[in-house]
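Could you help me review a protein record that somebody else here produced? My question to you is simply how this chain folds and whether the tokens agree. Thanks in advance; the entry in question is below:
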Amino acid sequence: MLTLALEHLQAHRARTFNLPPFHKLSTPSQALEFVEARGFIYFWPIKGVDFPSLWVAVAGDRPVADAHDDPGHITWRWKDDALGKRIWYYAKILRRKATLISLEMAPYFYALSENYGSPEEDYLIAYQEGRLPQSAKQVYEAILENGPLNSVELRRAARLTHAKDSEFNKALELLQADFKILPVGVAQAGSWNYAFIYELTSRHYPDLPEQARVIPEAQARMQILERYFDSVGAAQLRDVIKLFNWPKSLVERTLHKMLEKGKIARTIHPTRAGEWLALAELSRPPSDNLAHCA
């Protein structure tokens, strides 16, 4: 079996994660270019997940700072200023964490969501089939009936004022992860004078459902995984399943097609156990690896 070339992987991720020797991002336009180049990234780095993030591309490969005046937190302002401007898709998507998706890639993600073109009916079907809890149904209906609402107004309109914070937040996360709602602005509301304003995805991006309608699910998964491997270079099966939360059988089917196309190859990691999948150009025969290390 081929061996993963670690020095090539490190050089690859230096470029795709925007690590040294590449210059840190310093402007909103560079941030947009970075999202468009990668297709989708995290806003913050997520522990245990090897994936590009805006924070690392701006602040370097270090933990998110607690200090509010840390220069890396310029990312927060860029993100808030972009809300509602439709330059990218921002919401809690991958593992229900803050994710930035390019407008080119958004239809592929939407094609895999449980939305079938009728915002007034899709959520009801999901609720009736037990895939949408009562709290999420009430949140969705509040926005559907009232238009964009900040989280304080939304909680009241959804009749969840006396619900636990965790129940309300889980409803918001679930609806975002399924591309039903997204933040489109910030309001000076609540105890911190900072509250996201939420709107229906289908109203904020009215063309998105139609763009996604013509994309078969298999094609959507292929496109997403190709962009994923273009970013990370190499990963294990469990990494893919963990990030995208797709059924194992569908992930394996898509990866098999990528292997057939020669996009990726089965490899052995020099220092970590288990089979790895890597971009073909990051793999080499074991004999080459020994020669390189000699």
